[in-house]
Specification:
Length: about 240
């Protein structure tokens, strides 16, 4: 099966450890849920290369990527705070996804214009992050991520600060973009019900281990593991 393969991945730091084996099929949309401190962000950092596993292997399309530097891996990791530079305009923040020097040719400018239109913020291109709403900043960060052209998109609590209405809007946009660009998506969230709207796979992680995985609707309606039941608010 092609996609992202986390094979016997093991990582330990102080009193916390992760032991994970799972496959994310190419083109899948996966929600990773679990309590704070369960290992969600650590797992994303391992995949992205900001942390190194003590054991195991990370493979993309059957090719090991564990020893590849973060900036050369076939992925983009977007954190909750969206990583926008306050001294740069929206346009220049997004343009960093193509060329850090910001010296753009006509084709590159057209690509930026197209993606800003696609996420609905072209009219805001001259504004600075402080002049944007939370949803607009997230759209800008997403646009920059897409311009990198990597097939694997990792999002760490990308909708955290947004209200219910804006979260729903961003979920729809994210789903459309992932399908349009044929990406493989892994996104962490504290809102398990968002899995139904966005994902075709769900992983439940607790104490560094994936305890349940499968169809989001099935896992949310008929959880088996006691810790997942407790997390979802079922009586155990």
């Amino acid at each position: 099966m092609t996609g992202l393969n986390l094979h016997n991945l093991s990582f330990r730091r102080q009193n916390f450890s992760i032991e994970v084996s799972t496959i994310l099929p190419k083109g899948s949309k996966t929600i990773l849920v679990g309590a704070s401190g369960a290992g969600k962000s650590t797992l994303l950092s391992l995949i992205a290369g900001f942390l190194s596993p003590q054991k195991g292997e990370i493979l993309w399309e059957g090719r090991p990527i564990s020893t590849i530097p973060p900036q050369k891996r076939p992925l983009t990791l977007l954190f909750q705070d969206n990583n926008l530079f306050p001294h740069l305009s929206l346009w220049n923040n997004v343009a960093l996804g193509i060329k850090p020097s910001l010296k753009l040719d006509v084709e590159e400018r057209n690509r930026i214009k197209d993606i800003l239109e696609r996420v609905g913020i072209l009219s805001l291109k001259e504004r600075y992050p402080s002049e944007l709403s939370g949803g607009e900043r997230q759209r800008a960060a997403l646009a920059r991520s897409l311009l990198r052209g990597t097939p694997l998109l990792l999002l760490d609590e990308p909708l955290g600060p947004l209200g219910p209405g804006l979260r729903k809007e961003m979920l729809i946009l994210l789903s459309q973009i992932v399908d349009e660009f044929q990406l493989t998506l892994l996104v962490t969230t504290h809102q398990p019900n968002e899995a139904v709207e966005l994902a075709d796979h769900m992983l439940f992680i607790e104490e560094g281990k994936i305890l349940e995985k499968g169809c989001p609707i099935h896992l949310l309606n008929t959880p088996v593991h006691p810790m997942l039941k407790g997390y979802l608010g079922y009586k155990v």
